[in-house]
Amino acid sequence: MSPTRGRPHASSREMLADAACELFLERGYEATSVTEITRRAGVSRSSFFNYFSSKAEMLWFVFDARVAALERALREHDRDVGAALRSFAAGEVPEILALAIAEGRTMDVEGELETGRAVRQLRIAAAIEARLRRDGHDARRAEIVAAGYAAALVGTVWRWALLGAGRHRLDALLEGAIVTAEEMHGSEG
User: Which residue numbers delimit the HTH tetR-type domain (predicted)?
Assistant: First the structure.
């Protein structure tokens, strides 16, 4: 099992994700099977399902972990919404997702990205809205403000990926988006 890229693999999860990305670039997302991914990674099919429930999850696993961390941060009473949003960029960055965004057409993954983006943006908005309502905002304002923050966060991830994820810091771009969202909503967080 020799790595196909120049760095050692940290775990089977990363090996699988790397193998999937290579195959998506070579054959396209829809034309790549889980069996082909596991064969390329040198692991069993059952190993795949120990880490992922589907091919789509491979693209999103780091992003989804960051969303789960954001949801936890939003439930903390001592942290305001802006601080919780800033925590999204702490930790592992979604490099596989960034590659998929930048190479969406080549990977033939644009449909999955569009659907996944919408689902996750709605999930983020719902978490922010719940926090704002808990903080006393009326339902209408909470929904609108939360949608703006969620769009700023997800849009920033897309911008970061398209600018070249390795050349830009997600936290710096996110900071600018949060400040803009706060200004537009007339909110202090």
Answer: 10-70
- What single letter denotes the amino acid at residue 123? R
Contacts of 115 (CB under 8 A, 6+ apart): none
Sign of CA dihedral 167, 30, 60, 19: negative
Q: How far apart are CA 23 and CA 31, in angstroms?
A: 9
3-state DSSP assignment of residue 9: coil
Query: Residue 166: its pLDDT value, please?
Result: 80
**Which amino acid, one-letter code, is at 75?**
R
pLDDT tens readout for residues 103-123: 999 999 999 999 999 999 999
Contact 16, 41 (CB under 8 A): yes
Residue 137 has pLDDT above 70, yes or no: yes
